[in-house]
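Recap from last week: sequence in, structure out.
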Amino acid sequence: MSTPFSDDPVLTTSKVFDTPIPSLLKKNEQFKHMLFVKQKRQFKHSLFAKLQQNYMGPLILPSRIAAQQHGTLCMPAVLLASGRQVQIRLRPLWFILLYLVCLVLNLLFMGKSILRPLNVYLTYAWASYLPIALIGIIGAIGSLRLKNPPFEGKVTQPVIFMIPTIARLDTVPALKRVVDSILLCAPQHLSSFTIHIITEEDAMGIPDLQRVYRFHPQVTLIIVPAAYRTVNGTKYKSRANQYALEYRHAYDLDRNDVFVYHGDDDTGIGPDTIWSIAHFLKEKSGRYDLAQGVLTYPHQLCPSWFCKLADSLRPADDLTRFLFFTGLLGRPLAGLHGEHLLVRASVEHTIGWDFGASVKVEDAYFGMYFSQRYPGRSTFLPSCSYGASPATVSDLVKQRRRWAAGLFALFFDRRISIPAKWSLCYATFNWVAGILQHVGVVLILSYFFNGFNTSPAFQVFIYVWCFNLAYFLWLYLEGLRMNLDASQAARWTYFVLPWIVIMLMPAFSFVEAWAALLGLKDFLLKKKGFEVISKKI
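Predicted structure tokens:
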């Protein structure tokens, strides 16, 4: 393996330039506000040692104005970093209100119970979400204890921000937004941090990244050779993660005191993200090895209103189902997200990412293996990341389709024990069965068989149906609120958009269920490939 920076002259030390670094900075108007940089001609190969040598002072941009003056730091999510904080506590009282409204309406207008095949099927099909809803409610109650006050001071534990990317020209703008948000926020409370951008050697965006970040010693571009192969033949993002893991091992960056923050090339951070990381390192790093936070989706990062509203479900799902397993049980049995994920470097090296050639949901696999080997060692990050929803409905379907295909493959993977994967697989099968439970499909069938009578076979199931319906209404509305907070949205949107989301929920559920069904088809036909959707903002 090559030494750090040796294959990347633009990101190397000043000795490759004919002119000293300070002279270059004076000539470049874009960097005129940066601190004077001490020229170093010799440096150790350890990346953190390089940071400690003060080769270049930290980039401190505490205000929105400073971010705007910095040029590339004018991306939307970076501007959000200096706005109001997302309120991540859920409101269970709103769920109770929705449940009572649903119950009253159903008791008033629901027909009499009948024992016909369709009604018997609906009785149990529409009740099958009850375990998921109950787990979610417990997780939501747990969210009431989350606190993330502003952090004072700095922590010295090393943190690596790892961002895998294909660096296509259409994905580079979002990637810059992500890197810039880290450069803006991390120096405030992290004394030792570095950013690892991992990409393939044929990536078209490499020259642009080298040009933009040439004066940032915190940014390291790690290029995965085309000839690189893992032991188990892992492909796609897992292969890049495994190469980055081996890179860290070669330079002694997989120590017990080092933590790796996994990001995505469209998911930025804010001050609250750094506060939670600093609190974790100072107060919890001795007890826990992994922490997962909340993913939010600012609306200005997505051109499609349908997609940005459809992703309202996801922040609330993090604070319910994911918080129950990862935070309360200390075992990420619901899987993990590949971003806003903090892992101890030594633990990540032990588990690895070499899961095999067919794996498409490497984050879920990592969560399963972690649950088996380190039970009780995970917790929850009480903060947000700021990502982009798919740009089109077609892209949304492609994304969910890939997830579903990967999750079905996980279910039939014998390397993962049944107890470790039962909850994730139960949720996945309910997801794909949603196409047969969709209200539109049910109404069409009931027209031909029951004359629009969709009553349960047993009246008591009305209470279960209303519980499940109220739970998903509540998830969408609470998730929408958090996404609006992340968007720094106008106050009127908090009153208008909830009604639009309620009206569009049948369309959201149909698209989600259809994508899951296509994912099941891909799994059965053993379709290969890993399509990365474009997120240009």
